[in-house]
Design goal:
Layout lengths: L7 H24 L14 E2 L2 E2 L10 H18 L1 H35 L8
Antiparallel strand pairs: 1-2
Helix pairs in contact: 2-3
Length: about 120
């Protein structure tokens, strides 16, 4: 096997990473606590000493995920204002109208989401 010398550090780093993962997994398996299979009371789930109520696999309402996606969408919008705020004089009037169009599109999206009832938790 004839490898260029520039690949040797990459192979060493990959070997160290794979070795670390293997040692960590094997060490956790052999040195970690061993659970007994027969003790169902000890292996049951408890939250702060309170017995569990219901199933942990109960699905969340779609409103929860929709709200999370909308938060990310409108939060990322704010990130795009930073470069404009730093360089607004260099962008001039053309940049101002571009930012107004950007904001208008997000306001249209916000009003669409609002009218569709995505922000009403009572429904």
């Amino acid at each position: 096997m004839n490898l260029p010398e520039s690949y040797i550090p990459i192979l060493i780093q990959a070997g160290v990473a794979i070795g670390f993962v293997a040692i960590s997994l094997l060490g956790a398996h052999f040195l970690g606590p061993q659970q007994k299979k027969g003790n169902s009371v000890k292996n049951s789930s408890w939250e702060c000493g309170i017995p569990v109520e219901g199933n942990a696999r109960t699905p969340f309402s779609i409103k929860y995920f929709l709200t999370a996606v909308l938060f990310v969408l409108f939060d990322i919008e704010i990130v795009f204002f930073y470069p404009y705020a730093v360089n607004f004089r260099e962008f001039g009037v053309e940049g101002f109208f571009a930012v107004l169009m950007f904001v208008a599109i997000f306001f249209l999206a916000f009003f669409y989401v609002w009218k569709r009832g995505a922000l009403d938790w009572d429904k």
